[in-house]
From TrEMBL:
<dbReference type="InterPro" id="IPR004463">
    <property type="entry name" value="UDP-acyl_GlcNac_deAcase"/>
</dbReference>
<comment type="function">
    <text>Catalyzes the hydrolysis of UDP-3-O-myristoyl-N-acetylglucosamine to form UDP-3-O-myristoylglucosamine and acetate, the committed step in lipid A biosynthesis.</text>
</comment>
<dbReference type="GO" id="GO:0009245">
    <property type="term" value="P:lipid A biosynthetic process"/>
</dbReference>
<dbReference type="GO" id="GO:0016020">
    <property type="term" value="C:membrane"/>
</dbReference>
<protein>
    <submittedName>
        <fullName>UDP-3-O-acyl N-acetylglycosamine deacetylase-like protein</fullName>
    </submittedName>
</protein>
<dbReference type="InterPro" id="IPR011334">
    <property type="entry name" value="UDP-acyl_GlcNac_deAcase_C"/>
</dbReference>
<dbReference type="InterPro" id="IPR020568">
    <property type="entry name" value="Ribosomal_Su5_D2-typ_SF"/>
</dbReference>
<dbReference type="Pfam" id="PF03331">
    <property type="entry name" value="LpxC"/>
</dbReference>
<dbReference type="GO" id="GO:0103117">
    <property type="term" value="F:UDP-3-O-acyl-N-acetylglucosamine deacetylase activity"/>
</dbReference>
Length: 297
């Protein structure tokens, strides 16, 4: 008789460099399957409760900021908790919407300003997380969607965002940069109806242009990053073309970031079509603020 893998808790640990630290760590536990309990992802920082998706209304209590990654904060002073970079892990929970998970991110530093925890970058994608879950949790389930009859259009400093209702989750993401005659462009169009549609998004690695990386390092940022954490793109005329893991990998990674910024609040997707030009975590947050009220109904 085959043992039901949903019956017993399982725990995995992931460690690697993060954006700011040479080593970061997260433990993830999948709890016993119980159809009478509401599914949830409970996020902890240093063993202390931070946020749980079964109280999505509590999400707006978290402070939000961006520093090349999404940063969430709760509490004040010595009791403050800061969680950075959940956007590569959060979309993986879309695959198992009926399950309950506990995510405990180890504190990277503690002071009189509280505890700061940053998730490991792994290879800069969601694939290491997904692969481990797939082997141990089982086959992905049917995705969870919610209606979001939103019509919106607004400009960004160098781009725009458009939202319209859809029958699933669809996104067209365009990146365009032109610096001193050096042009960088990547574009991807993804329609997500089922778990299979997420794989090429999960595989896309984070990236940074070489000139941006050099400037960040001079400013004392990205202290934990090395060549194993993603793609370093050189858009100079003499540069060798990068080898991508999937087609239009930079734009697909922006879609991964988008999914993470939307799904951290609740592991479900809004039924919308998004057209985004040169977006980022701040514009993703604005999208979330427009669709999340429908997820809470």
């Amino acid at each position: 008789m085959k043992k039901d893998s949903r019956k017993s808790p399982r725990e995995w640990e992931f460690s690697s460099a993060s954006l700011s630290y040479g080593k970061a760590n997260v433990k993830i536990e999948v709890q016993e399957y119980n159809p009478q309990l509401e599914p949830r992802v409970e996020w902890r920082v240093g063993g202390r409760s931070f946020y749980s998706t079964d109280c999505a209304k509590c999400f707006t209590d978290l402070k939000f900021s961006v520093a090349r990654t999404a940063i969430y904060e709760s509490g004040e002073g010595v009791h403050a908790l800061t969680l950075a970079s959940p956007e590569h892990l959060a979309p993986v929970f879309l695959m198992w919407p009926s399950r309950r998970f506990v995510v405990d991110v180890t504190c990277n530093e503690e002071s009189d300003k509280g505890c700061v925890a940053e998730l490991p970058l792994m290879d800069g994608s969601a694939l290491p997380f997904f692969s481990e879950f797939r082997r141990n949790v089982g086959a992905p389930e049917e995705l969870a969607f919610y209606d979001a009859p939103v019509h919106a259009l607004w400009d960004l400093p160098y781009g725009s965002v458009k939202i319209t209702p859809s029958e699933a989750f669809e996104v067209e993401y365009i990146l365009e940069r032109n610096e001193n005659g050096r042009v960088f462009k990547s574009a991807a169009n993804v329609s997500i109806y089922s778990a299979e549609d997420l794989y090429n998004v999960f595989a896309a690695r984070t990236f940074i242009l070489k000139n941006e990386f050099d400037e960040a390092r001079k400013a004392g940022l990205l202290g934990g990053v090395d060549e194993s954490c993603g793609l370093l793109l050189d858009n100079s005329p003499e540069a060798v073309a990068p080898v991508f893991r999937v087609a239009d990998e930079p734009a697909r990674h922006k879609i991964l970031d988008l999914l993470g910024d939307l799904c951290f609040a609740k592991p479900a997707l809004p039924k919308v079509r998004l057209e985004i030009i040169n977006g980022g975590h701040l514009s993703h947050r604005t999208i979330l603020e427009k669709v999340l009220p429908y997820a809470l109904q």
